[in-house]
Amino acid sequence: MPITLQQLLQILPNxxxxxxxxxxxxxxxxxxxxxxxxxxxxxxxxxVGHESGHLARLVENLNYSADGLANTWPSRYAEPDGxxxxxxxxxSGKVRNKPNTLALSVDRKPEQIxxxxxxxxxxxxxxxxxxxxxxxxxxxxxxxxxxxxxxxxLGLDLITQPELLEKPQHACMSxxxxxxxxxxxxxxxxGKFDAITQRINGGQNGSADRQALYARALKVLA
Length: 222
Known about the structure:
The protein has helices spanning 5-11, 18-32, 38-51, 66-72, 74-77, 101-105, 110-118, 129-132, 144-154, 168-181, 184-189, 193-201, 207-220, and strands spanning 88-91, 94-97. By secondary structure, the protein is mainly α. Among the domains are: 5-59 and 167-220, no CATH class; 64-107, no CATH class. The chain is globular.
């Protein structure tokens, strides 16, 4: 059964009016890539809901502060302590990694941040590729190689027009393509939700929110 507008809003209440735009294109994408049945649909909606901020963000903005950089990418942006760890500072009562000189120099400069973080990897070989091929779609497709593979699968020229992934229909289809390509239906069938998070995120960032959305989606789609 396709997901209804009422169900989507029950799972992602912050989606608001945009939910109506996404219902038909989500159903088209899920149907194409066999994301069907309660377990698969619940896992998919929970993950894309978290990744996109309840369908609000279709492009990575990377507007990080120096503190955010030091604690998101410490190996690149935190001050080493010479003992294999990072210098710690107090920020609003919390212990945080101290930003290094590079982090301070690119504070709140998203284009520069993208080109540093994503440059010379994932097929990004030209100057500016890091920003051009930053994360887009409901599950953020990142890097020229991934844009090329996704575009080939969907019949889109994402190398020339990467911003196509900011359109709801392509944002949904690219996420469903990523899901199927990475074997996530199999993990969803087995209830291995943390393993799905690992494949999408490379870690367990936002795990509590993802799990809460997943529990709600399982209930709504029962």
